[in-house]
From TrEMBL:
Protein name (record): Chaperone protein HtpG
Similarity remark: Belongs to the heat shock protein 90 family.
Keywords (A to Z) from UniProt: ATP-binding, Chaperone, Cytoplasm, Nucleotide-binding, Stress response
PANTHER family for this protein: HEAT SHOCK PROTEIN 90 FAMILY MEMBER (PTHR11528)
MF-aspect GO terms: ATP binding; ATP hydrolysis activity; ATP-dependent protein folding chaperone; unfolded protein binding
Native source species: Echinicola soli
InterPro entries hit by this protein: HATPase_C_sf, HSP90_C, Hsp90_fam, Hsp90_N, Ribosomal_Su5_D2-typ_SF
Length: 627
């Protein structure tokens, strides 16, 4: 039997197009061919289970090998195999309609994934790296004859009787000159590790050396010897294919270490397992992120039937959960699709919503089950929760019951709890409840102390997401506003009906203002003399809440770059009721008044970490003189 013919693709242009579009991602040829081999093996196992194949299955390992001298790569399986007629059906007739339209549509395409998979061209990815491909196959069917198929990358093929004696298929790639980089053990191992590490059928690639116990040495201790064993590159039953009831914490942690060897242990994990209205399995881990906004992409790996597809999962996983680590496996996501196609796929949107719900349910469960433990993890998981609340309304609705606010004393409250806690003391004359917050409790300690003296509570909102979270809370919480604790003097942060009167006369206030303006001599500071408690500082430097917030958001890329580029402008509040102000007024000579005013102003800057360089040196010298 020998036959020659033309591959039925209705055009001579298909192979150049395949080569052109897939060349940039040519390593996927190995994924496609090994996946095909695994599929064929699984099918023969299934037939045996159904009693439709009664022969001995034998060793079903898929083997990948290469010969550097002959410049070949071989993928061999012991699966279904094919008859000559089946080769002609499945290989020669590329299964899509309207090939001419296909060529026209994709002649300018850049995305290899858009071509492979959508039109069933997985096998033909071999021609990305090979100038000739041979198929040797023997069908499982009783009495079947072996067949050999050869194609040189044109639309011409040759099929003849083969010499294979074992059930299955062997695909031999004759590597072209441009692709000889793949004739390397470590390169092939790398690709297999990337794409085939969790395929459900054992895959052998070369051999490896292992130390095995070999009796005892002279002192009675175990002796070992080195032996060559098959190098099986994959784990056929990764944990996401198992039932959660069959797994222990150690199994999840071991798998995490396998995925991310250099990472700390995760905080906890979520096992995904759903079969309606779509199929989805996987394990998502919450890593330790702390307060660093580590938007490390490419940490969640997408698989389809245990074949690695991509680690760009932004359309499948909600944006705020891109910080998670782990694995998602779904056969309902087309195997090789472009990202634009992925976005349009209905199942992708359903999966996105499902993952959001599962994460919310898990966090709620942890909070209710052990609040103390949940609070201890909040510094790590708070970033996820706040990011989710800011970016998705549906998640906010669920998270408002388990999101925590932490104050500067280290105490935790849910949103409803905190509203109840501060309502009495921190409601202003307009019936607005004011949440005071600090973005840097160390630096803003002076203002926190002033607030605490009035029995006000101050939240610690010092993570990178908090500038956006603050705005989100104001939009969601009724009759509630948030003010940074250093946005004004404490009496003006929460305005009450009563106010402290200024003991200075109008003329004295004017004089004090002029002394300080001359001493400061900087247009970025606006001086105001106010009636404050004598217990408050003589001088307080603040930045108005709106400008503070816009600048905070600009620092985290919140679309407020305009404000970030604006110069800082501060308000200098002079406490007319403080004894130091009285001392300045009574000082003899304008020079002495100015020296004392500058000292009081520099003290205010020092308390906020704003004094440095030459100004700090002069402040120290002046302090020595005053002592």
């Amino acid at each position: 039997m020998q036959e020659k013919g033309t591959i039925s693709i209705h055009t001579e242009n298909i192979f150049p197009i395949i080569k052109k579009f897939l060349y940039s991602d040519n390593e996927i040829f190995l994924r496609e061919l090994v996946s095909n081999a695994v599929d064929a093996t699984q099918k023969v196992k299934r037939l045996a289970t159904l009693g439709q194949y009664t022969g001995d299955l034998g060793d079903l390992t898929v083997e990948v090998s290469f010969d550097k001298e002959k410049k070949t790569i071989t993928i061999a399986d012991k699966g279904l195999g094919m008859t000559a007629d089946e080769i002609k059906k499945y290989i020669n007739q590329i299964a899509f309609s309207g090939a001419t339209e296909f060529v026209e549509k994709f002649k300018d395409a850049k995305d290899a994934n858009e071509i492979i998979g959508k039109f069933g061209l997985g096998f033909y990815s071999a021609f990305m790296v090979a100038h000739r491909v041979d198929i040797h196959s023997l069908s499982y069917q009783e009495g079947a004859k072996p067949a050999k198929w050869t194609c040189d990358g044109s639309t011409s093929f040759e099929i003849s009787e083969g010499d294979r004696t074992e059930r299955g298929t062997e695909i031999v790639l004759h590597i072209n000159e441009e692709s000889e980089e793949f004739l390397d053990k470590w390169k092939l191992q790398e690709i297999l590790d990337k794409y085939c590490k969790f395929l459900p059928i054992p895959i052998k690639f070369e051999t490896k050396t292992e130390n095995v116990e070999d009796g005892k040495d002279d002192e009675g201790n175990p002796a070992y010897k080195s032996v060559e064993v098959d190098n099986i590159i994959n784990t056929t039953q990764p944990i996401w294919t198992k039932a959660p009831s069959d797994l222990k914490d150690e199994d999840y942690l071991a798998f995490y270490k396998e995925l991310y060897p250099m990472s700390e242990d995760p905080l906890f994990w979520i096992h995904l397992n759903v079969d309606y209205p779509f199929n989805l399995t996987g394990v998502l881990y919450f890593p330790k992120v702390k307060n660093e906004f580590e938007l490390q992409r490419n940490k969640i790996k997408l698989f389809s039937r245990q074949v690695f597809i991509t680690d760009e999962v932004k359309d499948i996983v909600p944006e705020f959960l891109m910080l998670l680590h782990g694995v998602i496996d779904s056969p309902d996501i087309p195997l090789n699709v472009s990202r634009s196609f992925l976005q349009a796929d209905g199942n992708v949107k359903k999966i996105n919503s499902y993952i959001t719900k599962k994460v919310a349910d898990k966090l709620s469960e942890l909070f209710k089950k052990d609040r103390v433990s949940y609070e201890s993890k909040w510094n790590d998981i708070g970033l996820f929760v706040k990011y989710g609340m800011v970016s998705e309304d549906k998640f906010y609705d669920k998270a408002k019951d388990f999101a925590l606010l932490k104050n500067t004393k280290g105490e935790f409250y849910t949103l409803p709890e905190y509203q109840e806690k501060v309502k009495a003391a921190q409601t202003d004359k307009d019936e607005q409840t004011i949440f005071l917050y600090s973005t840097d409790p160390e630096k803003q300690n002076t203002f926190i102390e002033s607030a605490n003296k009035k029995d006000y509570d101050v939240l610690a909102l010092d993570s990178p997401i908090d500038s956006h979270f603050i705005n989100n809370l104001e939009q969601k919480l009724e009759k509630t506003s948030l003010k940074r604790v250093d946005a004004d003097v404490v009496d003006k942060l929460i305005k009450k009906e009563e106010s402290t009167s200024n003991v200075l006369t109008e003329e004295q206030s004017k004089q004090v203002k002029e002394v300080f303006e001359k001493a400061i001599a900087n247009q970025s500071y606006t001086v105001e003399v106010e009636g404050l408690s004598p217990e408050e500082l003589p001088v307080t430097i603040t930045m108005e809440e709106f400008m503070r917030r816009m600048k905070d958001m600009a620092q985290t890329g919140g679309g407020m770059g305009f404000y970030g580029a604006m110069p800082d402008n501060y308000k200098v509040a002079i406490n007319g009721n403080h004894k130091i102000i009285d001392k300045i007024l009574k000082a003899e000579g304008e020079e002495e008044k100015g020296r004392l005013a500058k000292q009081a102003f520099d003290l205010a800057k020092l308390s906020q970490g704003m004094l440095s360089g030459k100004d700090l040196t002069e402040f120290v010298k002046r302090s020595v003189d005053l002592i």
